[in-house]
Amino acid sequence: MMRQEDRLIERLRRYGASDFYPFHMPGHKRNPAIGSEYTNPFEIDITEIQGFDNLHHPEGILKESMEWAASVYGADRTYYLINGSSCGILAAICGTTGCGGTILMARNCHKAAYNGVFLNHLKARYVYPQVIENLGIQGGILPEDVDKLLRDHEDIEAVLIVSPTYDGIVSDVEGIAQVVHRYGKPLIVDEAHGAHFSFGTDFPVSALEKGADVVVQSLHKTLPCFTQTALLHVKGDLVSHKEIERYLRVFQSSSPSYVFMAGIENCIYHMDREGRGEMGKFHCSLMNLRAELGAMKHLTLVDERWIGKYGVYDLDPSKIVISVGKTALTGADLDRILREKYHLEMEMCCADHVVAITSLGDRTDGLKRLAQALLETDRGLTDRAEDRALESSMEWSGRVTSRPEVEMTVFEGISGEKEPVAVEDSVGRIAGEFVYIYPPGIPIVAPGEMLLPSLVHTIWEYQKMGLSVQGMEDPSGKTIKVIKR
Ligand SMILES: Cc1ncc(COP(=O)(O)O)c(C=O)c1O
């Protein structure tokens, strides 16, 4: 029988009362000042009763609410999403491509995009982001790379990129939109990590203002809103509202939560009235934090010095990305130090860096703790010897620059006859399942792709580092399903 103290709610309460500080989503950061309007969620939790409209056939208050939201954002249509950006990305992909058609997408898209490719049996052509030298971090997507692929492949129906990335890297969306529109195709931007861009002038400009046709934003990641809440915006006439709506009805729950929908409206209402000013103050505290972190000698803060290089058009300062590339630490090591010694929980760690999400839900004492912890850790480090640094830079460059060879579509890879083989014996075989570290959920290998030696090495190396390698059916991660020969 479950003990009282083992119940999830008890564990959550105990955790909430502890001194662990969140540098992860949701963007409200469990800040009590933010949730004051919500006493008991059951009080406002209803279903589609008379007078409260229906998200799937909005004619009343939800229609008005979403029209008002569209006017706040400058969109033609804004849809409330209660199944996260994931369902918006699925609807955007399926609503702009035909079954069995072709999409051009950035290879650093989230797994939700690959699920869309799978569901619509699409052929995916990939555009690769640049790689930031010596950091092991992906840069931006270049408009000229998108142009070349569109020129070479006339069958492409839509283009999907992610901007900002998990690491806060913003691509030249305006340049990419101009290219894509020259071919008469729609541009979808996964702006899951950029919902805050729409408010104030201190952060990068939202893709919606830069010419994208569909923009998907997770409110819960960087704004004060409940987990799972997101928005899909449509602008221009290259995308059929009807098709997007058809797929939103498929991918969203038929019982949309009024707690979430009220939360979405509340969040936009607050951001529109007071949020712009709050974003200005938040930006000031971020600049102070970033200036303090500039004193680090061994850890490297990813900052504006990379803007204008490696496809980095702009950078979201709210993502505190710390590279361990010059030190003997891995990202997983730094993540562990911050958690165990300082009780600071990061959003994500990769082989070479950690990511802290900050938002206007952060408290001054939290940001101070992050600065002190990183500066103190940095003081105890030394740079790697030259030869180790070289070796490491070769390791990361293999990790970030390997380009899997596509042998079959994601659908064919997932539905083909498969057999498990040991990871180390999988070189040269075609993957029958995804392999990714989560977060960020960008596939190292997608079904239908050839397992090149560099990719198998990467999987094995991530596992050795203790990173959360997921997607394989084998929970031990020792075997991977490949297509039977
Ligand atoms: C780039 C990106 N896109 C989409 C998603 C999915 O967003 P959601 O969790 O709101 O479904 C994520 C989630 O982390 C993401 O990182």
Helices and strands in order, then pairings?
Blueprint: H1 8-17, E1 21-23, H2 61-73, E2 77-81, H3 84-96, E3 102-106, H4 111-119, E4 123-127, E5 131-132, E6 137-138, H5 143-152, E7 156-162, E8 169-170, H6 173-182, E9 187-190, E10 214-218, H7 219-222, E11 230-234, H8 241-251, H9 258-293, E12 300-301, E13 314-315, E14 319-323, H10 331-340, E15 344-346, E16 348-349, E17 353-357, H11 364-379, H12 386-401, H13 410-415, E18 418-422, E19 435-437, E20 443-445, H14 453-465, E21 469-470, E22 479-483
The site of pyridoxal-5'-phosphate (PLP) has 16 residues, from helix 3.
- The backbone outline, from C-alpha atoms, is globular
What's the helical proportion of residues?
25-40%
Briefly note the CATH topology name of the largest domain: Aspartate Aminotransferase, domain 2
Q: What's the alpha carbon Rg, rounded to whole Å?
A: 22 Å
The CATH fourth-level homologous superfamily of the largest domain: Type I PLP-dependent aspartate aminotransferase-like (Major domain)
